[in-house]
Specification:
The protein is built from 19 helices and no strands. It is an all-alpha fold.
């Protein structure tokens, strides 16, 4: 039993390491392009490019009916015919592509998106959906290394196209967005053709009952994704409305640093979803969830506190001088991102139990909280009000999910440690923004305290896994 338990953690760590090398390392390269983005694009242009990309992200679950998530979840079920699952997903995407054409025309009629941006938005959506379908199928099939490799290829192509379009052709907003579109198209086709996914396609084998079962799982994820989009992006529109595109550009740039946490946690969550589903019949599920959550929240708070301490340094190194003021939004956004990651972890319970409606209800509450607070806080505190609204939203959803998920899998959330971590990082954010005398000394003490609280359990867990691996008896 001890050997089997150790193997579960080793598999999770191994998959996370592979995805980390293949995905995080490559995504990290994008951050070295921030000086390029902020030098080639004004804050107005960067804000517009960000809104185009975020608008496309809103359409992605609508035109795909979130079928890519269903392909991942149903491919994990060993009893399912994986080929028919992929075929059903492709069929839904083909229908979505047809629906996307009039949507592009509708966007072109909107002055803000006219001049070809409407077609660019829909191209972004279709390319992303096809790429995600192929990548999710590989990940669920257990081909973790190949999944990581395609992430490297996507990043390399995005960087290459950015250099070509921004520096070579000076295509500004169009070049920034088109780089992502072409990278998704090329990698998606590469996976479909060269990895042999086309051999699994047989549209005639797709049955109405199978599509119906997958859509019953994925359909509630459409509003769920939209609600999260509202939570993450509605503030961009409101900032542009109340404060202008220039402040919105600063806010979008500030979000690039918290995105590091999103990338890191996303890599782990991808590996965790595979382990959480495949190990659900182990008999020690609660213990598994407890141990993993304890380590996960520890890493998130340590990383969040560390990045927060160096917010100004990151702004100097990564941004053009005209974007330096963006640092002031990073501390609160980093705290919000930590809780965003914890919320995503709680969502893994719904994934295991196929309770997508619970994701819908909780994300609805989060979106409502975020919208209300945005309307109240942005007119008063500008973009900082948006950051506070984002944090409050994720905190509320985490509390709700923490209570609700216990109905399905009862595991220890380590509430005392979680509370201390939250309070300490909250004080750290306040010190960064207020800057009282010797604020840097107080902040150093807080960071040290967060590391002291969390480093021990992580080290003990790693040593325990290593000992069990060497002495399984």
């Amino acid at each position: 039993m001890a050997e089997k338990s150790a193997n579960k953690y080793k598999t999770l760590l191994s998959n996370t390491a592979i995805l980390g090398v293949g995905t995080f390392a490559s995504k990290l390269l994008v951050y070295f392009l921030m000086p390029l983005y902020t030098a080639c694009l004004t804050s107005d242009q960067f804000g517009r490019a960000d809104l185009i990309a975020q608008t496309a992200n809103l359409l992605i679950p609508i035109l795909s009916v979130s079928i890519c998530d269903a392909v991942f979840r149903f491919t994990l079920d060993r009893a399912k015919d994986r080929g028919s699952v992929l075929s059903a997903g492709l069929l839904v995407l083909l229908i979505g592509a047809v629906v996307g054409m009039p949507i592009a025309l509708a966007f072109e009629a909107v002055p803000y998106f006219s001049g070809g941006y409407g077609w660019l938005i829909v191209a972004y959506v279709l390319a992303s959906n096809f790429h995600t379908l192929c990548a999710n199928f590989l990940r669920a099939s257990g081909k973790t290394a190949l999944f990581a490799a395609q992430g490297i290829c996507t990043t390399a192509l995005t960087i290459g196209f950015n250099l070509l379009f921004l520096l070579g052709f000076s295509m500004k907003v169009t070049g920034y967005v088109l780089s992502v579109v072409l990278a998704d198209v090329l990698v998606g086709i590469g996976l479909f053709v060269f990895c042999g996914l086309w051999r699994s396609i047989d549209l005639r084998a797709v049955t109405r009952s199978q599509v119906g079962e997958m859509l019953r799982y994925s359909a509630p994820l459409i509003p769920t994704t939209i609600f999260w989009w509202i939570t993450n992006v509605s503030d961009r529109y409101m900032i542009a409305w109340f404060c202008g595109d220039s402040i919105n550009g600063l806010y979008a740039a500030a979000f690039k640093i918290p995105t590091l946490l999103i990338l890191a946690s996303g890599i782990f969550i991808e590996a965790w979803h595979f382990s959480a589903v495949t190990e659900q019949d182990d008999g020690r599920q609660s213990q598994f969830f407890s141990a993993v959550f304890d380590s996960f929240q520890a890493v998130m708070f340590m990383a969040g506190a560390g990045l927060c301490a160096f917010a100004k340094v990151c702004a100097v190194l990564l941004f053009d001088d005209s974007y330096y003021a963006a640092w002031q939004y990073m501390p609160v956004l980093l705290l919000a991102t930590v809780f965003s990651s914890l919320v995503t972890f709680m969502g893994s319970v719904y994934l295991v139990e196929k309770k997508s409606l619970n994701s819908f209800y909780t994300s609805l509450i989060g979106a409502l909280v975020n919208l209300v607070l945005n309307f109240l806080l942005i007119p008063i505190w500008g973009a900082q009000g948006a950051a506070l609204a984002t944090f409050a939203c994720y905190l509320v959803v985490f509390i709700i999910r923490a209570c609700n998920t216990q109905r399905y899998i009862r595991f220890d959330l380590h509430p005392l440690k979680l509370t201390f971590n939250t309070l300490l990082m909250g004080v750290q954010c306040a010190l960064m923004l207020i800057e009282p005398p010797l604020w840097w000394l107080w902040q150093a003490g807080i960071v040290a305290a967060i590391f002291a609280i969390n480093a021990g359990p992580i080290l003990r867990g790693i040593m325990q896994i290593l000992r069990r691996g060497k002495n399984p008896r």
